[in-house]
Description:
mainly alpha; 0% strand; globular
Amino acid sequence: MSNEQPKYSLLELTIYFLKLGTIGFGGPVALVGYMHRDLVEKRKWVTEDEYKEGLALAQLAPGPLAAQLAIYMGYVHYRIIGATIVGVTFVIPSFLMVLAIGFAYVKFGGLPWMQAVFYGVGAAVIGIISISSYKLTKKTIGKDYLLWGIFILLGVTTFITETEIISLVVAAGIVVWFVKAPPKFLKSVNSFFPISLTLLQITGISSTGKLTELFWFFSKAGAFVFGSGLAIVPFLYGGVVNEHQWLTEHQWLTEQQFLDAVAVAMITPGPVVITVGFIGYLVGGFPGACVAALATFLPCYLFTIIPAPYFKKYGKNPAIKAFVDGVTAAAIGAIAGAVCVLGMRQFTDMTSVAFAVITVLILLKFKKIQEPIIILIAAIVGLLIKAAL
């Protein structure tokens, strides 16, 4: 974290993240890639080391990856005020969008067109995040064989288990630490874990009432789920479909409603985890949406700003830097594995594969083309294809 005078104003940073939250399609993998491309490579507002520290912290702490990295980027030069403003402006556009979609969904009894849109958009998104993952891997790992080994290990285990194994992420950091900077101390690396354990105790509080129950359930989602926003989907499925019973006799949501909620998250920009706003709206209307979103993002905000000073104090230490390098390589490997899992689920026929391949080719050939344009075209073509069937 830098003590130098920033090259940008807080207003400029706020506008950037408001724009990213409004047109940043592709989910956590793409959003993480956009931040690196825009803030590190193009604008040079933050350094490569600051970005890697933020990515490592976002990977180690529970909560949605992209939102935590955005909050850390706000913290780098503008501390808590910057982190707070960036966090809100990054999330609010997609939250308003899912509220509008939720209103239409309830009023008109479902959104059958959504799956048609998702058919095209989902495949195009796979292409977008594949390119983002490739660029991030090439830029961050370079020719370091140890980091490549970690990358491959996490990619394979994530693909096979379809989940991110946080113990492997931590182990990767420790391995690189021991190899590149044999440890002389342990306290600085472990210092932020007790904070996490303390904060996690909030999930043990009992609750009554629908909104209170919503708050504690989604607090657990935000506090216990590691990695990208997509990692929260299995946790939410088990809770809102299998365990609770406010919309139907046995559930908060039906199976189809939950699938539609995930589709909404994928066809809207910003963090994928904003699907909690849609779910909250279906369960408890506008108050339910607000409570669900606040409860999910509050833990990730706290898990970012509280450990951040430790990165400022110890981030330049060779041992910490080595640990961060290992965790970053593991994080990118897990992201690559997640891309493969998503692709396997999304590619249902040759047309969906063609969507992704064409997207990749377009992004490689026309480097200045904006992703939202591709998303819009994919949505229109998906609607036309499904209408013709």
